[in-house]
Amino acid sequence: MRFSRLFLIALIACQSASADEPSMMNYFNQLRSSASGFDTAFERYRKQLQQQNSQQPADLNADRERLNDLGYEFLDQSRAADALKLFQLNLEFSPHDWSSYESLALAYYEQERYELASINFQQALNMLESSDSPLKGRRGLLKKIARTYLKLGNHYAALYVYQIEIARDPEADWAVQKIGQWMLKYGNPSVGMRWLKRATDMQGSPDKAWGKLGKYLQKGSTYRYIHYLREGRDRFPYLASSWDRLIAALLDDYRFREAERVVAQALSLFQAESLWRTARSQAGQQLIKTYTQDIHGESFTAMGCGPYWPEDEQALKHYMKVENASSNSKFIIHLGDLGKGIDEVPESRYANMADILSTKNAKPAFVVLGDNDWNDTNDPAKSLGFWKHHLGSFYHHFKLPFNVKTQPQREENFSFEPGDVVYIGINLPEGRVHDEAEWRNRIKDDGDWIQLSLATSKAKAAVILSHAPADVFDGLLLTSLEQSATDFAKPLLFLNANGHRWFYRKSDWAANITHVQLDKLHSEDAYPPVQIRYTGRDDMPFVFDRRIGAPDWLVK
Question: What is this structure's pTM?
Answer without folding.
Answer: 0.71
